């Protein structure tokens, strides 16, 4: 995966985080994790999980917390 | 097949619930109070002669042909202007009435040409019909006196005669045939609401006059065709009727342009369309139309249309015309090879909002069942995907809450980021009619759209916010509603989740969300925001209509949820006159979303991860379906650039022109090993295609479209497909090359499958549509006749969900390098990327895209009206001509994206909505400077367009 693509995913994840971290009801972190599971294609999820595993540079703490809750993804095509 | 003729009742229907009984010609008739005697008679089956009356406009009482006698009353009143009264006895035919009518007709005919046999209206002329009805046998006055008929009287020039006005490309105006019935003038006012026509002069000098006695084309006329339809003679006639003659049969079909979904009678002679006439019984348009649906269908015959399949090994080669079999085998083999080499997930497809429900359904089925992945998306991704997400979060369904008729009961109309009079013209006219009746109007738009101030319509408040600040605006409006105690507490208590409401109310009530605190962010006076919020909350039935100005932002989904919050907080949901109404861009945006075109959803918005839903489809299709969401359009592009996504089947969408950041899109397309384009023309995307499958127009196939009010309507085949196949058949042929063994013979079978597998469509069938005309989903056992208004007794999801809408400024910020904000939109005469409308005479109204710029910004940069200017953003640059106008605020520039050479999307960026990746078309930071002409990119692109469109000449050996 190119560096460029991770940057884009980081930006998208931060955007999503900015919505969910403003929510009060329920569990906003779980809300973000669910959003990623429902709408992100597995390869994208795998890439962002991998990025968090390598420190998650550029990601907001809220986003990191949510991504950490994502189950591992199998991307065998 | 016959020519469908609707009954003309003469005057509009009365909405009164009080019934009145009277006698007409000895028959007892009961009708609603306020009904005219003319209409009551027609309902009872008696047609009173008439000329100036038609039921699309109010009674006028000028022709005096519809006179009647009422027992016990003096004189002979006009039946069109005389309302029914209890117990009266009416006679529609007596010797006295017959004599009066004949006398009236004699006068009319004495100033009308007698060229019936060579007249274009021959066979469709009410004057001719009335002459017959009243028994006119003689015109005693002769033709020698003053008249409007002859260019010369006894050799002398007749100054009362006027030549034909043929300036409008679609219809002609022949003043010599005018009987001054005023129907055209009234249709322009009452139906269309443009007020372009008037009667100038008085008495014998009375003339229909467009604008200030201008030619039609030069006047304010918007060419909607209402006047032509209303004209009882050949004064206003479609040029196509003049050229071809009268039609002999017709079929009801649905317009393939915007999301209003007007139904038309396609009036035919053999397989030739004579004209498209809006169908009076159409529930979306009630007999009205706009320039696109009414007149711009000629693209189906345009010389640019490709009728043979074509292939090429690489995009640098010219196209090679081949047989269908060869093209489809080429496509299927490459698809298989790509999947074998790069994996199952390396291919995908894009469905079209211009194609039918059945066609989009088949494309997504091909992806899920044939490609074995979920990499399917639709052009709704780039327009209304935030609506789907936002409304589903708030209410539990991804659709607008009302039917169009609901606007008749609105007291306050809040329009946000939509321009109905340009982009949804027939609904725009409907809205203007309600506004003229006194409804209040709030417009939230950076630009002064026509609705802000046009004849007899003026917005009570125009809030010209800075592009990109919608969320701050809806939150500020909510702040006022909460802080000033305007919340409909009973509604919220009964229908919404209480905890979420309280969290939301606490949030919006914070001082930082007040109009005053946000004034500098929004650029709108706080007092106006407060007043608008009060009006929305307390003005009676309040309805919100919004468009892509809301969705196409980094916070598009948040803004949609903010709008839903406003409606819930004020109780404006679940009845007529209120609601949250997304105005859909293309004809079948709603339908393509409904049909499972999104990578995460099966038809009917059933999430792909849901085992139960998947099982239903798996059983029916006999395959396993991947439970993971696939790639969305922008993800496909990103993935293609990384070299992971290699094959794409695009049906009826021009992604290269319509999607943002053209350089990025073209780089992605160029990286693919197979691009299959199925379209009418060699659209821009086809520059990068290896297989071209010629598609067909809506006139050449059967199917259904679903409009913005969830109304499913039929399209009917009126001519054989010029390319040989309907688009659904082409998808089937391709699927079968991939081993799918599909055997649909008629699109109705596809709809039956959809109904079988999709709970919200369970009751839909062609049989039902043929019987009822249309149905608004959900249509199933719970709602057998569909649901015009949703959420009447509660929300689909249970309790309404309030969502906190924190404003986050977009990354697209103005700064020293890019100090202006560019926003984009549409114009009336053109449609989307213009592939259709640019190939019609509509282009005469809008030959090129221009850049609107405020006089202050223009002066600072030395830009004069008409100058070429360069528009530069982070993403790219392009040039176009400037129009200096105060329609846009300082700091904002505006353009449309209908023409490929403008390349407006070279400038737009890859920013997108957080939830759905819907591109942020509406905000791009730019700089403007004077320029000499097209940029290097534009010149290069022009060369590419020419070279990519080359088709190899086939040399026939037999010659």
Question: In a few lines, what is going on in this structure?
Answer:
The complex is a heterodimer of chains A (77) and B (959). Chain A is mainly α and 77 residues long.
Q: What structural keywords apply?
A:
heterodimer, A: 77 residues, mainly alpha, B: 959 residues, alpha/beta, Ubiquitin-like (UB roll), 5 domains, 7-stranded mixed sheet, 6-stranded mixed barrel
Question: How would you sum up this structure, described in words?
Answer:
Chain A has 77 residues and is an all-alpha fold. Chain A has one domain. Chain A contains 4 helices and no strands. Chain A starts with a helix and ends in a 9-residue tail after the last helix. By secondary structure, chain B is an alpha/beta fold. Chain B folds into 5 domains: 115 residues, Ubiquitin-like (UB roll) (Roll); 150 residues, 2-Layer Sandwich (Alpha-Beta Plaits); 225 residues, 3-Layer(aba) Sandwich (Rossmann fold), CATH 3.40.50; 198 residues, 3-Layer(aba) Sandwich (Dimethylsulfoxide Reductase, domain 2), CATH 3.40.228.10; 128 residues, Barwin-like endoglucanases (Beta Barrel). Chain B has 30 helices and 38 strands. Chain B has a 7-stranded mixed β-sheet with strand order 15-14-29-28-27-16-17, covered by helices on one side. In chain B, a hairpin with a 4-residue loop joins strand 30 and strand 31. Chain B is globular.
């Amino acid at each position: 995966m190119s560096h460029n693509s991770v940057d884009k995913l980081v930006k998208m994840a931060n955007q999503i985080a900015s919505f969910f971290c403003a929510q009060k009801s329920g569990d906003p972190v779980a809300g973000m994790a669910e959003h990623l599971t429902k709408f992100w294609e597995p390869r994208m999820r795998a890439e962002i999980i991998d990025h968090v595993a390598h420190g998650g540079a550029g990601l907001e703490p809220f986003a990191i917390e949510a991504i950490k809750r994502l189950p591992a993804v199998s991307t065998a095509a | 097949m016959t020519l469908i003729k609707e009954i003309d009742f003469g005057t509009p229907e009365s909405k009164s619930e009080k019934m009145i009984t009277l006698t007409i010609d000895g028959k007892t008739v009961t009708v609603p109070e306020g009904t005219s005697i003319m209409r009551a008679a027609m309902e009872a089956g008696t047609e009173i002669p008439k000329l100036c009356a038609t039921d699309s406009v109010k009674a006028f009482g000028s022709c005096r042909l519809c006179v009647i006698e009422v027992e016990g009353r003096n004189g002979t009143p006009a039946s069109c202007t005389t309302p029914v009264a209890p117990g009266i006895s009416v006679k529609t035919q007596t010797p006295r009435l017959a004599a009066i009518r004949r006398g009236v007709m004699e006068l009319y005919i004495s100033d009308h040409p007698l060229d019936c046999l060579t007249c274009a209206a021959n066979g469709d002329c009410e004057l001719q019909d009335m002459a017959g009805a009243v028994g006119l046998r003689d015109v005693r006055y002769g033709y020698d006196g003053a008249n409007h008929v002859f260019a010369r009287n006894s050799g002398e020039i007749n100054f009362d005669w006027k030549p034909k006005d043929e300036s409008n490309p679609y219809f002609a105006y022949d003043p010599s045939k005018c009987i001054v019935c005023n129907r055209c003038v009234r249709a322009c006012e009452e139906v269309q609401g443009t007020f372009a026509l008037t009667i100038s002069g008085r008495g014998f000098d009375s003339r229909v006059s467009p604008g200030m006695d201008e030619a039609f084309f030069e006047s304010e006329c918007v060419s909607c065709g209402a006047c032509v339809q209303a004209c009882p003679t050949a004064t206003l006639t479609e040029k196509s009727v003049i050229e071809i003659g009268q039609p002999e049969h017709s079929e009801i079909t649905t317009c393939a342009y915007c999301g209003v979904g007007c139904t038309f009678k396609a009036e035919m002679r053999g397989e030739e369309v004579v004209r498209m006439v809006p169908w009076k019984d159409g529930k979306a348009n009630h007999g009205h139309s706009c320039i696109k649906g009414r007149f711009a269908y000629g693209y189906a015959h345009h010389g640019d249309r490709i009728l043979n399949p074509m292939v090429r090994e690489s995009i640098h080669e010219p196209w090679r015309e081949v047989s269908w079999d060869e093209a489809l085998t080429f496509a299927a083999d490459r698809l298989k090879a790509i999947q074998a080499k790069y994996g199952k997930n390396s291919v995908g497809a894009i469905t079209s909002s211009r194609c039918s429900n059945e066609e989009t359904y088949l494309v997504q089925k091909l992806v899920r069942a044939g490609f074995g992945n979920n990499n399917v998306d639709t052009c709704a991704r780039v327009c209304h995907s935030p609506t789907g997400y936002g409304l589903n979060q708030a209410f539990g369904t991804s659709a607008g809450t009302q039917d169009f008729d609901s606007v008749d009961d609105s007291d306050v109309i809040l329009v946000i980021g939509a321009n109905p009079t340009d982009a949804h013209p027939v609904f725009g006219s409907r809205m203007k009619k309600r506004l003229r009746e006194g409804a209040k109007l709030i417009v939230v738009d950076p630009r002064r759209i026509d609705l802000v101030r046009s004849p007899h319509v003026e917005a009570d408040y125009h809030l010209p916010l800075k592009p990109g600040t919608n969320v701050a605006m809806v939150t500020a409006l909510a702040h006022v509603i909460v802080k000033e105690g305007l919340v409909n507490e009973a509604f919220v208590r009964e229908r919404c989740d209480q905890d979420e409401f309280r969290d939301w109310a606490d949030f919006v009530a914070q001082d930082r969300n007040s109009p005053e605190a946000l004034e500098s962010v929004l650029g709108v006076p706080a007092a106006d925001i407060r007043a608008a919020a009060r009006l929305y909350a307390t003005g009676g039935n309040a309805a919100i209509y919004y468009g892509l100005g809301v969705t196409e932002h980094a916070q598009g989904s948040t803004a949609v949820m903010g709008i839903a919050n406003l409606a819930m907080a004020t109780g404006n949901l679940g009845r007529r006159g209120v609601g949250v109404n997304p105005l859909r861009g293309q004809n079948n945006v709603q339908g393509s979303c409904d049909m499972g075109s999104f990578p995460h959803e099966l038809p009917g918005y059933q999430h792909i991860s849901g085992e139960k839903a998947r099982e239903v489809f798996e059983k029916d299709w006999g395959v396993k379906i991947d439970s993971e969401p696939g790639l969305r359009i922008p993800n496909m592009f990103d993935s293609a650039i990384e070299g992971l996504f290699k094959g794409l089947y695009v049906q009826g969408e021009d992604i290269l022109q319509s999607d943002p950041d053209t350089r990025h899109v073209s780089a992605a397309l160029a990286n693919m090993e197979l691009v299959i384009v199925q379209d009418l023309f060699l659209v821009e995307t086809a520059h990068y295609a290896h297989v071209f499958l010629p598609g067909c127009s809506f006139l050449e196939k059967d199917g259904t479209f679903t409009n913005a009010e969830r109304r499913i309507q039929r399209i009917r085949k009126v001519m054989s497909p010029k390319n040989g196949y309907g688009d659904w058949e082409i998808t089937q042929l391709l699927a079968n090359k991939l081993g799918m063994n599909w055997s649909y013979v008629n699109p109705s079978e596809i709809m039956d499958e959809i109904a079988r597998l999709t709970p919200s469509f369970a009751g839909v069938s062609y049989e039902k549509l043929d019987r009822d005309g249309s149905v608004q989903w959900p249509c199933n056992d719970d709602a057998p006749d569909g649901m015009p208004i949703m959420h009447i007794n509660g929300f689909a999801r249970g309790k309404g969900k309030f969502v906190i809408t924190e404003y986050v400024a977009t990354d697209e910020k103005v700064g020293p390098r890019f100090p202006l904000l560019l926003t984009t939109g549409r114009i009336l005469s053109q449609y989307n990327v213009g592939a259709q409308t640019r190939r019609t005479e509509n282009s005469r109204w809008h030959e090129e895209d221009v850049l609107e710029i405020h006089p202050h910004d223009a002066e600072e940069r030395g830009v004069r009206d008409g100058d070429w200017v360069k528009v530069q953003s982070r993403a790219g640059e392009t040039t176009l001509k400037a129009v200096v106008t105060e329609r846009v605020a300082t700091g904002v520039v505006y353009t449309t994206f209908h023409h490929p050479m403008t390349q407006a999307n070279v400038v737009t960026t890859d920013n997108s909505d957080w939830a759905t990746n819907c591109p942020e078309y509406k905000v791009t930071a730019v700089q403007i400077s004077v320029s000499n002409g097209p940029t290097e990119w534009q010149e290069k692109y022009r060369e590419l367009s020419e070279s990519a469109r080359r088709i190899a000449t086939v040399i026939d050996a037999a010659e």
